[in-house]
Amino acid sequence: MMKTHKFxxxxxxxxxxxxxxxxxxxxxxxAESSSAKARPSEPDIDxxxxxxRALKVLNTYCVSCHGPDKQRGDVRTDTLAELTGDARSGLxxxxxxxxxxxEMPPKGAKQPTDAERKLLDRWLGRELAKxxxxxxxxxxxxxxxxxxxxxEKLFSGEYVDLPGxxxxxxxxxxxxxxxxxxxxxxxxxxxGEWHGKRVSVFGGHQLRDLSLANPFLLPETSGVRYYAIExxxxxxxxxxxSNAQKTSVYITETLVKDNRKKNYLPVVRQILSIEDQHExxxxxxxxxxxxxxxRVCENLYGDxxxxxxxxxxxxxxxxxxxxxxxxxxxxxxLPIAVAQNQLTKSGGWDVFQQAVLDxxxxxxxxxxxxxxxxxxxxxxxxxxxxxxxxxxxxRDYGSEFRNRVANEKKAKREIDKPLDVVEMQAIHAxxxxxxxxxxxxxxxxxxxxxxxxxxxxxxxxxxxxxxxxLYGKMINELFLHILERSPGNEEASQYLSVVRGYADKLGxxxxxxxxxxxxxxxxxFAYRGEFGVGEPDEHGRRMMAPRxxxxxxxxxxxxxxxxxxxxxxxxxxxxxTREDYRREVTRILxxxxxxxxxxxxxxxxxxxxxxxxxxxRELRFFREFFGYPKALKIFKDEKRFGGDRLDNxxxxxxxxxxxxxAHILEADRDVFEKLLSTEEFIVYHDGDNERMRARSxxxxxxxxxxxxxxxxNFKMEDLTKKHADFLRTVTMRTIDPDKPNGRTRxxxxxxxxxxxxxxxxxxxxxxxxxxxxxxxxRGYGNDFLPGYNVGxxxxxxxxxxxxxxxxxxxxxxxxxxxxxxxWLIAHAFNTETDPVHRGKWVREKLLAGTIPDVxxxxxxxxxxxxxxxxxxxxxxxxxxxxxWKCHKQMNPLGNAxxxxxxxxxxxxxxxxxxxxxxxxxxxxxxxxxxxxxRDAFKTLPVDSTGHLEGTCDVSLDGxxxxxxxxxxxxxKSRRVRQSIIRHAFRYFMGRNEQLSDSKxxxxxxxxxxxxxxxxDAVIVSLLTSDSFIYRKAIEE
Amino acid sequence: xDTSRRQFLRATALGAGALALSPSLDPLAAASREMGxxxxxxxxxxxxxxxxxxxxxxxxxxxxKLDQDKQPLEVALDKHELPVWLRGLDxxxxxxTILQGLSAKMSENVHWSFSSVMGCFKSQRNTLSAIKRTTIxxxxxxxxxxxxGHVELSFAGGRTGIVDGYSAPxxxxxxxxxxxxxxxxxxxxxxxxxxxxxxxxxxxxxFLQSREGMELTGIKGHEKKRQELHVGSIEAIRxxxxxxxxxxxxxxxxxxxxxxxxxxxxxNASTPxxxxxxxxxxxxxxxxxxxxxxxxxxxxxGTPITGLPGNETDRVGIHPLGxxxxxxxxxxxxxxxxxxxxxxxxxxxxxxxxEKVPEGKGTMFDNTMVMYFPENGExxxxxxTESPFIIxxxxxxxxxxxxxYIRLPFHGTEGHKTLGNWYTTLLxxxxxxxxxxxxxxxxxxxxxLDQTGAIKxxxx
Lengths: 1036, 460
Prior knowledge:
By secondary structure, chain A is an alpha+beta fold. Chain A is built from 43 helices and 23 strands. Chain B is of the alpha/beta class.
């Protein structure tokens, strides 16, 4: 275990920093640091003495509740000596955690002194170390235990002299880095949309059709998800083995053969060039023969060709049945389009089409055309079942198919395109050599191909193996391509020997594949290294190696490997000072000409937007910190939502939440405060104010034009003549006076016009200044901006939406991200709100508080009661002595959000959604996109009052009237600012903070304040801190 | 040349050794140690099975009314006549269950379900990120480990070679499957048919192991443990490959013989021929001990059907049939019935053949469950309120369901059970104590009805 991760019990009582403030009591511990200012080491006490003393402490404070008389929580400590194996280590671990985190003895019970607690902790740790079964240290490295380090001490200034550092380490790559690496290796180009134009983007996980499994998926929790605590396991390796095999084949079978990618692995291409050239030739000859062999043979053999073919045996078709009277009335013959599709799928359409297009066949009957096709298929050697299926279709649809071909504008007769003279000579020679009497064309092709394959193999043997030099170049090329470095001399020599062995056994292509697989399976591929180099300073610290630093900076801000400038800085000795770090970090933070996919999962289901030009990990910090992307995973009921296409609405909601965060980050002023309390949001808006306003104005114009006209009783002529000039100036889906036959599944042009006018009227007749610019009727596909139902999350009735075309804009009853529906849904259940987890989130993420896990003896369920609000039911379950000690840290915070329902909609009353409380069934969708389909239930008033405690600021702590009041206070809290900075530290460092990081945290906070609330300043401060740039060697 | 897809996937076929190494297959062998071997065969069909098609033809009036009104119902099969298409299994009524009334609304419905019908999540039209969890077949495979862990066979889309499957060994991970009998045979029995491929894998791993072992020098603490873990993982893979090679003699006895018509994907093999050959491979994989869990997509809407009785010379499309569009003048419902009959024939073959293989004090079938079900529910355009299962289970089955037609309370009503309840039942009965498998049903939630956990009355 690394010394720097050890913890000892905090000795001394909690001391509030702010004079006069009453801070919420927290369970915290103190991190030990190997610093110069560390406390004197423990005296080396005889272990037997420690044991005796520890057992005495145990007997004094624990056995009365966990002994022979009582076993609270089914725990008994007095029989510890009798336990063995898992039972013993399990109990020791529980005790260790309870002692270290001060969970026991419970509040109100007699407490051990700090020295006694420390002694017991130490003994328990030693006992666990004997069997290697200790779990606490590992647990405390996890992000969810980050807050157990005393907050006040971290920011007190008392520890700023402790030198910051991170231990030398390897950090398992994240799912995002894996995607980026594989996209780079496979030369995958992804595009996205940015302000209306297509741009090349980094990110996403579309790796062609390889279906690579990502072995490095991160946990789906809110908060910091990517930590340097995971190990590469057999599971990762097994998945990578499969990935490596797929990848190696794809590289050698497809990518290096792609003539559009001449610069892709040129040495591999050179080594495989003979094989590739042969394969290209083979493909070309085969493709040619597949199309034209009949004509080639006719030319070669003249009249004798027919004699050489096998005797034609016509296919016997089963007679077509007629539906009997007993058959269901629903049965019908295949529609012509389906029948054509069937013929195409069975491989028969092309021959039929060519036969019909041949003028020589113009006078032939349908049967004669079918016979002609059958002969073509028969002589070619097509499979009997295929021929049968095709002929059955020609029998039933022959003349309709002919009409279709005649009406197909793109259908053209195929003209022979011979290959060059040399190739044609080779083909003619092969046919003459291999053709035998009775062969079908397919058999001739197969024989020719086999002959050419044999010849090419011999040519390859005659050419000899590649030179050692060429192999050496290839090894270097693949090292650079996969591991992004050249091999050392010894390494290169070992790999050369292995590659030659592979090649001797398996041939060149397989040898290259094995080499690629080997490199992809190395631990170097899966881990990012961060090690110090050079002479250690007086604290034993060394600066990160420049190459490691380049990667550390790149991966801190993006998922990509370092760009050329960063690598150049590392190569040329310009990444060795704090200023060097500052220069590069600042450069990347300001870069705006690189685009990133924001959310790969969202990209799977949502093709709109989802692109950013700020370094992706800056934006991702807040996505993960707030945890709102989880809204995608919360399964919601469309009926309760009040409309369909909920998926689209949720996707838009999430994308707009991202853009709102990005908007605040882009301004980079008072970032935390704005994120917590802004009144301006983005709702159904693509970021282009001009476009949105123009469309909204257009709808308004249509309304103004028609509102006083009797459009309800219009006839088609009204559209095509009387109002045609106006209609030509506006966009109304499917309404085009010059195309009166236009229709969709929803009706003809006149019907659609009336539908659209009804929709427009509903949206405008309450004096709305601007209508929301969504589609005018509910059809398939979208003509403007999908996800219109997003308005429902924000309490906008679709038929009474006072839309704001210029955004971000103020939305009633909302302030900051914690009132954004995406956050509220992400922290809710499928059908109910979740005040406990909302409160827990605030406590842990904003107030740096700690809340223990739910005890295993507690069945945490909110009782059902059809006549009470959720808040009341929760109170009845938690407001008792036992539960309240933890729930008082959550419920009073989470209850304030009861002013929003589980869809994030503002509310004054809570619906009692039980069958017996139903007042009125909601309408069905029935094609009307403005309808609200919700059922109406009896309601009770919502109580959104709450209580804030834990800001350590008397002016902020206290009763809150609702969530808006709460977030206002949180936004003003220094503790909240510090808490966000602590999470940012964890995110960028990949570990929990310790007391030696105190200076780093204080400076990050100062940078934020001095810069007027710039998050960029926080990042620069963190990535130029001692904690980031200095590394210490790992000790045993 | 169409190298890109088919040949590429064929070439990337993992050797028999490597296939066993999916990360989700870490042995949770406790269940199998306690209850002995258990096998599960999931046979997925497309285009739904309509409620009337599972109804017993001689239901009493009362039973018929209950069934049609979707009311709970349970009758003994031995006192009733099976629907025509199920009569191939007449002699096995005692081992059969017709389970009707499970809902599958939490999975994808309408035409396709992709991974979701076996994972109880919305698959968002088969997007990778939507794969929320390990599918039920892989979960069961964890409980009963085997060299291959899990095998997926498929005729979906009329493809051949090794292609994407529908099962998921882990979240956001798509399995592959063998799409024609010849490929399935060659890949499953690769260690016998092509031992060089396995050897070359091990050569590579050996080199890798020695390289990574060298990295151990000079590192300390946690990094050293990490590296040891990595080296150990490579060794574990090599060891499992070695074990598989050592099984060669046993495997040789079970390599199925295939007719030449199945060469190169079997383009001229009729559907009955293909199905029979795939069934042979499936049985061989079980009997040889290569796997204990098989998922077999016997068709999907893109599978071409040829040589079917009544439509012998037609090339039938399942999608048009689902829209009642007929081929060769044969009413669509009749062709659909013939398709189901061809499926039942495969199930019968599996049962018969496994019954002939001794195991313990009985036969291999005693320890086997065959589950046949539509991927999308109750019709061609499934809505997910009824997702029927036909189950054939041997005498050691851990569930108390045999010999019955069981209709569960309808969706959204008290006592209703979802696909998630059914899969939870399978897992609980076989050693995985999971509280509930799969996403919850929103209608049940809205109606405030209990819907988590196993179907307790099914657990013997």
